Queue: 2 jobs
Job 1
Amino acid sequence: MTSLTATHDLPADWRDLFALTKPRVMTLVVFTGLCGLLAAPGAMNPILAFASVLCIALGAGGAGALNMWYEADLDAQMKRTANRPLPTGRLNRQTALHFAVGLSAASVILMDLAANHLAASILAFSIFFYAVVYTVWLKRRTPQNIVIGGAAGAFPPLIGWVAATGELALLPVLLFLLIFLWTPPHFWALSLFVRSDYAAAGVPMLPVVAGPRVTRRQIALYSLPMAAAAIAPWPLGLTGAIYGVTAAALSAFFVFLSFAVMANTATEPAGMRPEKRLFAFSIVYLFVLFGALVLDRYISAFTFG
Amino acid sequence: MTDAPRPEDEIVRARQKSGARVTAWVLGAFIVLVFLITIAKMMVNQ
């Protein structure tokens, strides 16, 4: 099939277009966006709520597709991404670009229609941030790419909240901060055990530029403010004990795993069990934390009316 | 006398057919969604 695709300009297969949207990344984005929407005060019309979450998914998909369009050359050089539709030639670049721009535009227009201008504006900015600020400006230029670029993935709970309420508040800003501070340890843990891939592709990830020791120290350092941002809503009275206790317990374990990473000295992926464990746990961490946030909100509402 | 269809042509046709079907579903869903959003907005603003 690949050789056929290479010699004949085949029409795009929808599965390849779907793969462009980075469905696995989208799962977390949609979940945090949905939780932001559900944690907001008041009740949103279910159709408008569904449409808003769909827009977050479409926006994330559009941004992911723009990223893959721009990075096709880079993806071809890395084992982890070489099998994507553009590097393998299963999809032509122009189709990918049209799809990405169409999806991004549709998500913003639909969000404006279903929710409000502010939610649509933040969604548009988050797509721009991921596709241009992170992908084009930062990723190939600075080892701080993930630190600043992490903001792109932090927008969904904010968008969900604003879609439901029409305004910003402290809790969604703290949720933004939490994902923003969670992103560096999450990606640096991954980039430690796929360091050779990034090095071969010339991406200046922190482990490539500064080495594993500095990266491990940074992971541990970032885990502390991240834990503070995760727990903060409880003492500030923005959430109840269900979220607070969950956040405290999970964040303590996150910090523990991060310090286990700092204590590790392995330079080969085979010896990087702590890094792999932190990477896997970091995904569960966000899912459970946001799940607890929604549970807390509904149990509190049920208990105290 | 007609030539036998080449395997490449069959793949192209199958892709076009599947692409057209998916596009039709997506456009249909988009129209239904815009309609539902409009109705929901009217209910919310009442």
Job 2
Amino acid sequence: MIEIQGLTKRYGAKTAVDNITATIRPGLVTGFLGPNGAGKSTTMRTIVGLDRPDSGSVTVNGKRYAEHQNPMHEVGALLDAKAIHTGRTAYNHLLAMAATHGIGKARVHEVIAMTGLESVAKKRVGGFSLGMGQRLGIAAALLGDPQTLILDEPVNGLDPEGVMWVRKLTKHLASQGRTIFLSSHLMSEMSLTADHLIVLGRGRIIADAPVGEILALATGTAVRVRTPQAADLANRLASSDVTVTSVEGDLLTIAGLASAQIGEAAAQAGIVLHELTPLSASLEDAYLELTQDDVEYHSEVSR
Amino acid sequence: MTNTTLEAPQTTTARSSTHLSFPRVVRSEWIKLRTLRSTQWSFAIFVLLTVGFGLLMAVTLDTSSGPAVDTETQKSLTVMVATLGVNFTQLVAAVLGVLIISGEYTTGMIRSTFAAVPTRLPALFAKALVLAVATFVVSLVSIIVTALVTAPILSGQGIEGQLFDGEVMRALVGGAGYLTLIALLAFGFGAVLRNSAGGIASVLGLILVVPTVLQILAGITQAVWAQNLSAFLPSTAGALMYAVGDGSAAGGPPIGAIGAGVITLDTTQGFLVLLGWVVVMMIAAAALIKRRDA
């Protein structure tokens, strides 16, 4: 369980994270989505105390990360695949990290096996590919058998097999009641991995809801309508809950009404319809729509 | 890279026994220190330079033309031979001291370190402790080995080592102590500046360039303040730690330049001045490391 309360972090004049409040619950894979520079990494860094918040607080299982007796057992974090001394071998890196908590060699070998690093464990990290670096970062995060796992862009640079593995691993760990918090800019990946999504845009939370709900909210009732009497139909449907957008002369996109309702309204008014298509957008579209204007959707989605 | 398993087998160690503690952080830092090639090379160079320069001086020393050397000079020469390498190994100690911490910043490793030790200061102090102990042991061993190896050669020149003389022993240990404090001073610079090039340049500037500049200045102007300032520089004050007699043998204030109002330090004072430098740098490093984002 990670609780973020009114977190704000500035770098000079730039506000990276602007007063965000969220709870990342155990037993779920929570996805952290947002465009580059939205503040995802900053938020994750404050959770493990690498960055100091300007205001607000972050606790893990009720305490600040630094106050835990056994930090690596509370939180395992992969924040940067390059946060490793390039002159040391993977095995020695893990051994040194494990030693801080008195974690034995047996566990070091376990995480090496889990992440498939056996063949390169004795090689210097400087020669690692991004994918191998990611695996080593995940191995280090798993050392303490953590209750909470934080992974910043874990699939970045991984081959498809590795992506699949991360997906299975995170779901598996969540099913054991652990808290899993992972960021990505790959929306399609998130729709497969995450149970819950927190969408961040320009340092603010745009959406915080189950994956399905975010899809529904952002795209659920958009319908494409083609009619020679476009203006007529638009006037008839206009209300505070309905948004009608004119795409071109005879083409409208209508949000806020189901296709059946639009069809019935058109029939009643004797308006001819040439096309009536419910738009089932992907999470990608939903995400783009959400991040387009963060303020407008703030109150709607986060409720 | 292909056989990835999903199941996380239960760890073999009991959960309750794994937690963070200072001795464990020290152990971690020790693993880090010994698993880098740069440290291994640095310490190898340490031994080589100390023994090499000691042998070189012992072999080339010629006392046949002069009168028989007195006991004080014998002691002084013994120490000088054994610690001649310090002039060079101090550069290695300084570079090593900076790199051990700045290397973590430049590679990003510091974020892993601070994520594992979120209170940060234990990691800083453990790193300093490991560096200090390793530097002290390696320098003391190489200085003593040099003294032992050169003893028979010096004996041929009529110089009896007097290795078990209290003053000689103090100076030999002092040489190792000096190198240790220089390594720690450099470590402080590395921690404050978080940058290898900047850290190394600053430390070498302080222990090599500044004393030379002040010496030239003092030589030209006979300015008392320049001589006094020079006496309190880390390398000048620290040099007293491995000198016997009046300290002039190892870079103390130039003889003849001592005038009214010029401060001269004794061995203990020299040690305390250098220690003061280290303490100030370590406090600055500790304060900054707590406050800064990693």
